[in-house]
From TrEMBL:
Annotated Gene Ontology cellular component terms: cytosol
Sequence ranges assigned to domain Adenosine deaminase in this UniProt record: 11-331
EC number: 3.5.4.2
Note on cofactor: Binds 1 zinc ion per subunit.
Record Pfam families: A_deaminase
Organism from which the protein derives: Salinimonas sediminis
Catalytic reaction list: adenine + H2O + H(+) = hypoxanthine + NH4(+)
The protein's name in its UniProt record: Adenine deaminase
Site description Important for catalytic activity, residues in chain: 220
Entry's Gene Ontology molecular function annotations: adenine deaminase activity; zinc ion binding
Principal EC category: hydrolase
Zinc among keywords: yes
Keywords associated with the record: Hydrolase, Metal-binding, Nucleotide metabolism, Zinc
Amino acid sequence: MAISTRISTLPKAELHLHIEGSLEPALMWQLAQKHQVILPYSSVAEIEAAYQFDSLQSFLDLYYAGADVLRDEDDFYQLMWSYLCRCREQNIVHAEIMFDPQTHTLRGVDYAVFMAGFDKAITQARQDWGMSVLLILSFLRHLSEAEAFDTLAQAAPYYSMISAVGLDSSELGHPPEKFARVFAKVRELGFKVVAHAGEEGPAEYIWQAIELLEVDRIDHGVRCQEDETLLALIKQRQIPLTVCPLSNLKLKVINDMAQHNILQLLDEGLLVTVNSDDPTYFGGYLNDNYVQLEQALAMNDAQLKQLLINSFKASFLPPAQQQQWIDQINAA
Ligand code: HPA
Ligand SMILES: [Zn+2]
């Protein structure tokens, strides 16, 4: 079977996906009309054409502006439902999905609104095709630690819907150490911990995420190669990295996909995974990211299988459930 067919047909998990980054331009346009939000674009095609970035910040500016069209429960339902339908098409059988509460609460949209919308879509996907979904609450790191504490407290009625807590937004100048105390509280509450680190920020931020936040996974982490001691530690402890190739290309973390280090890290024995990050902004859902690795880096079948297996091994699913999917991949 051709590798591209195997990419699309084999079961996979997605572990690094911002739900606000899956907002399709067509839905953005429709919701802007619905709520009479004035967008700085005059058509869906103009929205798509605007997605040219030169850094993480240049993307985040459009990502937060786009999220402003999300106002009521049905908007959040539509957003989540569209992504889950993509998962079904792409054979993503399990997804661990990040959401940014502060992007909404700061605009006066409460937890009750977005959590109800998410829950309705997730319940439907679970019932209709047996998809499994976990949610990851992410703090915006350009805001203060006090605001992160507030955000965590406001989530209390929804703790049973949340599996992990993460850290995203503008990395440079906002090191993990800024959030050490709030993540101590997060761990005390029993949540898993993830953090974006080593995307644009230096290897030092990955150290801090591991040592101060005690993360279960690193989001991105591609700059770990700049520090051999760190690389050895990540390998020895098998700390998963949720790598996002198309995101790295679109945000100019790399200049060319052929330069991406994901397969080197994989071959060195690190627990790396492939993810789409913000698929509508970066021009591809999960399978497109795997296809890029085949086209630019000549990913072979053994590497593909290992990446798919890693997507379950690095997940927060119970080990027995992970193993069922891994057995299916091994048998394919
Ligand atoms: O790739 C990302 N990095 C940091 N923050 C983000 N928020 C959405 N996507 C990202
Ligand atoms: Zn991300």
